[in-house]
Every structure is written in structure tokens, then in C-alpha cells.
Amino acid sequence: MVPDIGRGSRTHGLLVYLYGPGKREEHTDAHLVGSWDGFAPDPGRDTGPDPDPKVTLARLTAALDLRVKQAGDRAPAKHVWHCSVRTAPGDRRFSDEEWNAIAQRIVHATGIAPNDDPDGCRWIAVRHAEDHIHILATLVRGDLRQPRLNYDFNKAQAECRRIEKEMGLRRLNAGDGTAAKNPTSAEKFKAERTGRPETSRETLRDAVRQAIAGANDETEFFIRLHEAGLRVKMRHAPSGDALGYNVARPGDRNRHGEPVWYAGSKLAPDLSLPKIRLRLAEGVAERATFPAPGGQADWSPPARERRSATDIAEHAAVLLDGDGDEAAAQLVGAGELLDAVAQTSPAAIRAELVAAARAFERATRSHVRAERADIRALRSAARGIVQAGSALGRGEDGGTTAMLLSTLVLVALAAARWHSARGHAQQAQASRQAAEHLRTAYRQAAATPMRALHDQGRALPEADRRTHAATLRAVLPQQVLRADSPSTKTDALVATLAQVEQAGHDPEALLQQAIDMRELDTAANMNDVLVWRLRRIAQLPAHPGEAPGRPQVGTRPIKTSANRTSERNAPTAADRPAASDPHSRPPRR
Any residues with CB less than 8 A from the CB of 3 and at least 6 apart, and which? Predict the structure, then answer.
């Protein structure tokens, strides 16, 4: 059950809307379900001898505004209190009597009209849809004083949580005051009217977050805003120092033809200029000394940066598994990294990654404050990804994108556990939503490299397959190979172990190292996680190519004696049938 509270100055105007057809003819059978005394006139159910809804509406307006007029100048300028209360999708439909009881509980809890208080404010509850009501109250009491409405939204939220529990409704997550402001109804209607998929507020919030991701300083942050095509207006103190900033989307204008500006703090609590300055100051020193990403010379900059970021994200997931509050800062850094990946990834998966970043944005904010937490590595990783530019959806770029997304799924799940342990229900749910979007993007990004690895695993000689399968059974007897599971599930892992050995490493030792890096229980596909970890540790290409058994680009050829080669029985690519490699066939003439 979701309450939404606002203030206004025109009682009659709001009543006209509540009893009218709505913006899209969605209002049906508008009528009162409750009022301050149970006898308020109802324009929707006027059954007099000569019913006239307009006359009844005027009578209702006069009754609600009676004390406002009596108070005169002492009445507040915005004397109309408006609260809509909506049930969640899937909840049962309430009768008018039940909605009346809910409205009475809301006005009591918020201090509008406490029970047994004859001087409570006048109020009504209007129903014009199956799933919600609107409560309208005028903010002058019978003694002509104003009601005390401190934290009325929080009180309404708390009462809704109690109603959900008592009436067996879907239990929504309680807020903690750190969420970003939702778009208003006017903003949503404007987006629909202009054919935009989302409101300007949401578009600007994403753009500002992406501009922060890995930014070196305040100057670079504002340059990125301008490069994103946004209008930027600064607020200065008399001394000339910048106090804040406003942003506007080009083409978004009000009825007077002026740009619609949004202050950073109104987009999200952590997007105010002072909060952004604190975050930017944390990363400057690290970027001056951060080592260049590793990798082979023929890997593209986006591929090298994604591979480097994967190691950093893995470390952040380890910190999130701990009990310390320093993980709160890791969440902020992980959010920047996800924003950087979302704006530089291939177009085919960008929508899912933008959705993941938008969901995870809620998980980055809570009342937990981390002292002396270091997120410079995460911010540097985000900066490197942004500076490297857009990644392709194929080759090493595509493979390292899948490698990074596989780890970011585990980061999001670790964030969900961390928030759940502290009772942060909304943030935990946001983390799980982000993980689902990341999983969807990962499956698409990993399809091609994993298919190539599966093909290479199936093309290995049977003796090699048995050797590496025995390694898997020795290290993971209960988790990977099961009697009732098809061997194709481990083909990619077997192929990777073969390439690890070909690169001069001990497959069993490296597999154990990959397992020990971090827990695997939350992995949806443990084999995929181990494949990516092994390929990172051994510096194997993320995209293995198509030819099974050939020395992989970027690996060190193993130098062994002829005896060891004979013992391993590892044939060369020339020894294998040409049919096993579609790319080795001669061209058709």
C-alpha cells in the first residue's frame, strides 16, 4: 500500500479533478467513501429531487473551506492536504467501508484528524477507481489553529505497513528517507504527451550519475554534463564560489517557454554539489598512481580495462561479504563502475545495463556512513572504462564484457545480503533487481564466447577430456560433475583447463585458486564463474576464438620435452580432422 502526499491552495480545483473524468478518462463512479463527520455532501451520489453535481460540488467546497475562511490571514497559503493511498498490484479489492476505515486510520496517524478530537481538520475520502482513494483535508482545525504535521509522510508510510500486515496485503518495503524523489504525476503525463519513454527527471538523474563515474575532478564532471548535451546552470555565492548546479534537458520547457531546471539535490540526495565534491576528492590521489591495466598487447583498450575492472569488482564483493560498515562506500564505487559499464557497452545489452544501474542506484544510499573506506580502485576502474570508449559486442571486447558482468552479478547479490543483514529492505530489493538485469545482459554477452568454448571442449581428444574431468571430480566432487548431469555443462570448463595447462600452469592448482577466491553458492552458473576466474588468473583471452586446440592468442606456449608431450597425448591442430573446425575448411570455389 503506497501513500503519496502533496500540498495545494485550491480546494475546488482538486475536487473538480477528483470528480472529473481524469487525464485519460480513467476516473469512473467517483464518490465519497468517508468524511470528517460522515455527512458531507457527495457530488457523485447526489440523490436529491433536482440533483446538480456542480451545486453539490460548490457546497462541498464551502464546507471544507469553512474554517479556512474563518482563520483568514492565519490560514496557511497551501491549506489543501492531499494524500492518495493505493494498493499494490495483486491485492484484493476493498469495499467502500474498508476504504473509509483506512482513510480514518491515515488522518489519525498523520495528525490531520486524531480520533476523539472534535477540533480535527475537515477531510473527505474520494474513490474513483478500484485500487485507490484520495484523501483531501483543509489544514485549519476547529480551534482555528494549524495541525502539527511533522513527518506526515513517514507516519502515513508506517500506518500503511501496519494496515498491510493486519489485512493480509502484499508487504511493501519500508523507506528510510534516502530514496530519490519519484517523478510527479505532471511529469509523467508530460512524458506520455510528448512521446518520451521516461520523464526528464529520470533522464537527467541517469546522465548526472554517468558524468560522475570515474570523473577526475569537478571540472571534468561539468564538461561531461555539457558533452552529454545537457543545459547546466550554476548557483554562486556572493563571493563567487559555486554553491550548486541545475540541469535541464534540451527541448524540455514549461508553459512560458523557459527551460525546466532540476537542482542536483532534487534528482537524488547524493547528487548535490557538496556530496559530489566529497566523492570526487576521494579518487584523485589514486588515479595519479594507479597502475596501468594488464593484458596482452593485441587486446583493445576496452578489453584491457574490463579485465582489470573485473579483479577490482571481485575484491569489492569480498569486502561486501564482511560485517564492516566500510562496505557502504564499496556500494557507491560499485555503482559508479556499473554506470561506466552501462554507457560504454554494446547496444544490444545497453538497455539491460542501464536498467541494472538505475536499480542499483537505490542500493548505493543508506544511513550507514563508512569511515576511512577506500573506493579509489573502483573509481579508477570506472574512469578507465569510460576513457577506453565503447566496447564492441564481439571478440575480446565481448568476452571481457561477459567476464565483468559475471562478477558484477555476484557484487549485486553480495550487496543484497549486506543490506538485508541491516534491515535495508528497499536497498536489498534494488540490489536483487539489479542482479536480474545483469544476469540477462550476461547471458547475451556470454553466448558467443561460451559457445566457442563448448565447441573446443567437445573437440578435445577423449583422453584429455577424461584427464580434466578427473581434475574437476577431485577438486569439486559434489558441485560440478554429477552422475545425472550432462557432460556438456562442463565442456567450457574442460576446454579452459586444457588451455590453462597449455599455457604452462597446473590445472588443478589454478582451479583450486579460482574456487578459493570467493564463495560460489550464489552463482547461477558455477561453471561460468570458474571459467572466467581461470581465464583471468592464467591471462587467457576472454574470447577463445573458434579453432579448438590451437594455441590461444595471448597465452605462453608451453615448452616441454617430447617425452612429456607424448605422455600427455596432446595432438596438434594439424593432427585433428578438419571437420572439427569449420574455419579450417578450404573455401568453396
Answer: 83, 84, 85, 106, 153, 156, 157, 160
The CA angle 165-171-176, to the nearest 5 degrees, is: 105
Residues 152-185: b if buried by 16+ CB within 10 A, e if exposed: bbebbbbbbbebbeeeebeebeeeeebebeebee
Taking only the tens place, the pLDDT of each residue in 322-364 is 777 778 889 999 999 999 999 999 999 999 999 999 999 999 9
129 shares a domain with 73: yes
Q: What does the pLDDT look like over 200-231, one tens digit per residue? A: 999 999 999 999 998 989 999 999 999 999 99
Residue 335 lies in a domain: no
Contact assessment for residue 282 and residue 375, using Cβ atoms and an 8 Å cutoff:
yes
Nearest to 536 by CA among 335, 309, 355, 330: 309
Whether residues 31 and 149 fall in one domain: yes
d(CA 83, CA 102): 12
262-263: strand order across its sheet: 231-236, 242-248, 262-263
- 499 located within any domain: no
Does 162 fall in a domain? yes
Q: Which domain holds residue 252?
A: 190-280
Average pLDDT over all residues of the chain: 84
Query: Mind giving me the DSSP string for 287-352?
Result: HHHPPPP---TTS-HHHHHHHHHHHHHHHHHHHHTSSSTTHHHHHHHHHHHHHHHHHHS-HHHHHH
pLDDT tens, position by position, 533-585: 999 999 999 988 743 334 333 333 333 333 333 333 343 333 433 333 333 33
d(CA 337, CA 274): 21
Q: What share of the chain is helix, strand, coil (3-state, %, to 5)?
A: 55, 10, 40
Residues 30, 92, single domain; the answer is yes
